[in-house]
Amino acid sequence: MGSGSLLWNLTKKYLTAGVIGLTITDRFASIVPVRGGSMSPTFNPRTNTGLGSLDDRVLIEKFCLAKYKFSHGDVVVFRSPSDHKQKLIKRIIGLPGDWIGTPQNDVIKIPEGHCWVEGDNPVSSMDSRTFGPIPLGLVHGRATTIVWPPQRICQVEKRIPRDRVSPSA
Amino acid sequence: MSLRNLKELTIIAKEAFSKTFLVAKSLCFLHVINTHVFTVASLYGPSMLPTFNLTGDWALAERFSHKLGKVGAGDIVILKSPVEPRKIMTKRVMGVEGDSVTYVVEPKNSDRTETIVVPKGHIWVEGDNIYNSKDSRNFGAVPYGLLRGKMLWKFNSIQEIMRGRIKKTEYLRPRRYGHLKILDILEKRSKTAEQMSQGKCPSAIFRAQQG
Question: I need a surface site. Which of A103, A117, B51, B157 has the fewest CB within 10 A?
Answer without folding.
Answer: A103
